[in-house]
Specification:
- This protein starts with a helix and ends with a helix.
- The longest helix has 38 residues.
- The chain is mainly α.
- 79% of the residues lie in helices and 0% in strands.
- The radius of gyration is 21 Å and the shape is elongated.
């Protein structure tokens, strides 16, 4: 089953990188176009800023997922660096992962409620009439993805605890 998850993770990683790349190009290109249109050509274009904001929201949420996938999200690792015992390190990582999973589950619940509210009471952007749930869906997707990655970290923490109890290191199991 492990090769399946590794392949799935690689494909999801590629998709996240592609979405981040495309949305980065959109934000940069649309902002450049907006600036040139206003200050060079004197055009007053409506709706471009709405597209920038929409692409920006998807970019930010995709970036959060990429950071969560790579375990590069915001961490305070002072205590972790002080621990020398493999079992304590594994316990610490697992505890942190459990806390992150609980917080992520709360965000999933809040994002679901926000998205449901946005669908029940549809609102649109002023110029292009883009439904607001389109940007809210980015928050929903990111919260679910971060929760799944937190569950992955809890699982791997449990594996590390079992390995530390039996005297093996996680590095030995991976090789």
């Amino acid at each position: 089953m492990q090769p399946f998850f590794k392949t799935l993770d690689e494909k999801v990683g590629w998709l996240l990188d592609a979405v981040a790349f495309v949305t980065s190009l959109l934000v940069m290109g649309l902002m450049l176009f907006l600036i040139l249109a206003r200050y060079v050509f004197g055009w007053s274009l409506v709706g471009i800023l709405e597209l920038v904001m929409l692409a920006g929201m998807w970019l930010y949420m995709t970036g959060a997922l990429i950071a969560s996938r790579r375990r590069e999200h915001l961490v305070v690792d002072f205590l972790e660096l002080q621990l020398r015992d493999a079992r304590l390190q594994a316990l610490h990582k697992t505890l942190v992962a459990v806390i992150v999973a609980i917080i992520s589950a709360c965000f999933v619940w809040w994002a679901l409620r926000m998205l449901a509210w946005g669908v029940q009471r549809p609102q649109h952007t002023p110029e292009l009439s883009i439904p607001l749930w389109v940007s809210q869906a980015a928050i929903m997707l990111a919260s679910i993805g971060c929760f799944v990655y937190a569950l992955r970290d809890v699982w791997q923490g449990g594996v590390a605890i079992r390995a530390a109890r039996s005297g093996h290191s996680l590095a030995e199991e991976r090789s």
